[in-house]
Structure formats: C-alpha cells, structure tokens
C-alpha cells in the first residue's frame, strides 16, 4: 500500500531522479512525463492523488496542460513547480485553481509538505485535533465541576463550541466523547441557573451579566451617542455555533468583535425578543404597555408589536434618533429592504429581524425532508451556511458595509437538540412549547425542571394567581402521557427552545465593522 500515486511532469525530468528516490523512500508511487501531451494521456488512463507540473515546457505550456488535465480530472490537486516568479503567471495559475505554487529550486521537504497538505491533510488534522481534545478533556471536566462565574460559563461554552466545530470536520470518534461532555456541562449549567437566575433579575443592569433587556441600553445606545450609524440585526434562534459558520463567510469583509450574552427565560421569541426591543422584562412590558403584550393563550402573533416597543424605549431614554424597522421572512422581504437603501442610509438606527433560522428549526420538526437534510448539528450548520450564501442576506451585509454602518449582530435565543422525554400533565390551557410550560395545575418531575411558583420573582407575567412556570433542562422535552409513544417519536431528535441549556441561553452579540481596503 502506498501513501499516494503521483504524476510529475517536467521537460527536465531526468534531472529530478534524486526527488524520485526520496519520494519512493516515503512510499509514494511516482510516474513521470516529460511533456504536456504525454501527461494528458496518462491522466486519461490513470488516477492520481496529486500532479506536480512544470510551467515552462516545449509544446504545451504548463498552464495549457493544466487546463486539459482539469477537463479530464477536475478534482485532482495540481502543484505547479516552476522557475518563473512572474506575478501574472501566479495569478493565472491560482485562477485555474492550482493546489500550490512552488518556485524552483525546491528542496525535498517542500515537496513533502505540499503532499501532506493536499493528500494527507484530513487525516493529519483529524489525528492532531483528536489528540489535542483528548489532552484537554480532563481540564474541561474539572472546569465544569468548578463554581463558575457568568463570564467563565461563557468561556467554557466557547471552548466546547470550538471543539465541536473542529471535531465535526474530522469525523473522528472523539465527537461522541465531546457530546457526553456537553451534556454534563448542560446539567451543571442548569443547576447554576437555578441557583442564580432570580438574583440576576433582581439586580440593577450594571451589576448582573448582560441579559436580553440590557442589549439596547448597554450596546446600541452608547454607539448612537458616539454619532455612529448603527444597524441592529437580530437573527432569530441563532446558536453560537451557527453564528461561527456565518462569521467564516463575513471575516473577509468585516473586522469582527465577538461576544456572548444571556437570553432571559423562557428562551422563546415572545419573551426574549420583546425584552430586547422594549428594554424591559416581560412582566414590565405587560404592566407598562398592556396593549403591546400578547398573553400566552391568545392566538394573536406574539411579536407583532416590536416596532412600537422600540419607539417607546427610545422615548423613555429621551433619544432623538430616528430608526427604521424591517422584518425578513423570505426573498421578497430582502428585495424590499435592498430597495430602501436611501431610507437605511438616512436613519441613524436600523433594526432588522431575520426569521429564517427559526423557520428552518420548526420546519425540521414538521418536514421529513428537512429532518433528513439537517440530521445533526453539523448538517444544521451546513444548511445555515447555504442559506446565508444563497438567500440575499449576504447582500444585505454588503449594503450596510457600503453605508459604513456598524452592525451589531445578535439573536433572541438559541436551540437545543432534544432527545429525552419528560412527562408533564396539565389542563387544556397549558401552552404548547416543548421546553417550558406555564399553568395552574401542572404535574411533573421536579428534579427534571427549573420550577418557578412565583413568576414575578423572575419578572414573568402570571395569567392566574396560581400560575407556575417550569423549564426543561439538559436535552429534555416535555411530553404528555396521552399518546405518549407517538408524541415522543415525533419530537425526539428535533431542535427546540424555551428551556435552560448553554445552546439556548448563551448567545452571540457581535459587532461588525467594515474593513477599509
């Protein structure tokens, strides 16, 4: 078994025998050709893992040979090896999608490095990544068991997401170990929230971790006061790992200042997003603006009053800036937004809500096809990336960059992949969310939930005097005893939100500044 099959094309191939000996000593099977025509014929008849190609050859040039080879074997990596250092040639070669460009004279280790990068990179990266995670596994476990501060929880979650992204690319067996470690971390996080959440809500804004009602006051208003043109872009239901794949697509155009903050409970749009735009907890919104608050049992849309909530917030803080508000549910909304460039440019503050990720999450539950396409977290991230690249949202970012806007990207909450059912019994007025319930006569396993019998202590409205809220923890989802097996089978392994987990509560708050070129 060889390390790979190589084709080396050079009109002075006889002068390269030392390289052939070196490569064969490293268990590579090397075939040679002295001109482009022979190389093309060899490619028709054989598969190669990599081709080394001289540029300056009689007859067909290296670039001409490259074009013909790509027609026959479009996937094979080609490394150009040449004496020519002309920038134009480099540009042409890179434009033709060469894998690497080496300037003669090259030493054997340069060749070996090109082979490792283009043939063996995946297994090398996989091995190094798994070894590195294995080395950090115990350290992360000790960190989980410590009494962490809010900022330490944020750093721990960042660390776990980094490993999740790296291990998902390698496809190695350590991914299962990471999944179990995340489950352990989420159980510890739920205990932490049970102990501390009530004190967060009672504390003044500057003495607690940043939570949903603080976003406008502590992140948006200071920038407006500095005279900056600000866009607050809210990606509904966007987890930190999903943001990371979007950041990869944006980093060429923006300087990115990345932070995380905490969503309030319930981690659901009705509560968390209204809290962002009102600068208030849900109970305060209901008291001060009863006409703008929609009760849980009402059928009316729960987020139809965001624009007036923003207006009231600006008025309360005596801010004179004008603002625009836009909600994007599909391509037509993107087109309308892009058509309003003049309006966007004139307003100091633009607020844009993008609902696609939340729609995708719900579609995955309801559609068998979407469930197949987003079978796991990595596939879910892949669909998010594909949407961003092909939906027109990228053009929205480009338009805002041209206006020299400072873009604050955030979300209202994240979601978690639920796998473990937790039985709950309630009357017909109990809400339908699978990660939180509120009602008068709930029956449940108290060890599996965060139980709040006095909702006002966490600033949540109580439709009745005896209303109790319960929040699912870890990867649990609430299920009813009636038709239990069908219910569990339908909702198991779906992405849900409303409860307590790092994925739902620790969410991105990112500042993008257009790069100057």
Question: Describe the biggest sheet?
Answer: 6 strands, mixed
Q: Quick one: overall form?
A: elongated
**Low-confidence runs (pLDDT<50, min 5 residues)?**
none
Global mean pLDDT = 92
Radius of gyration: 28 Å
Strand content: 15-25%
The number of E-state strands comes to 19
* Strand adjacency order, main sheet: 7-19-10-6-9-8
Number of helices: 21
Distance between the termini: 49 Å
Structural class: alpha/beta
What level of helicity do the residues show?
Answer: 40-55%
Write structural notes for this entry.
The two termini are 49 Å apart. It contains 21 helices and 19 strands. With 517 residues, it is an alpha/beta fold. The radius of gyration is 28 Å and the shape is elongated. It has helices at residues 17-25, 36-45, 62-72, 87-95, 108-119, 121-145, 150-170, 174-202, 215-225, 240-250, 269-278, 282-288, 306-316, 331-339, 341-346, 356-366, 368-373, 377-390, 393-402, 484-491, 502-505, and strands spanning 4-9, 28-33, 50-54, 78-82, 100-103, 230-235, 254-262, 323-328, 349-354, 406-410, 416-418, 420-425, 436-439, 443-444, 449-452, 468-472, 476-479, 494-496, 506-514.
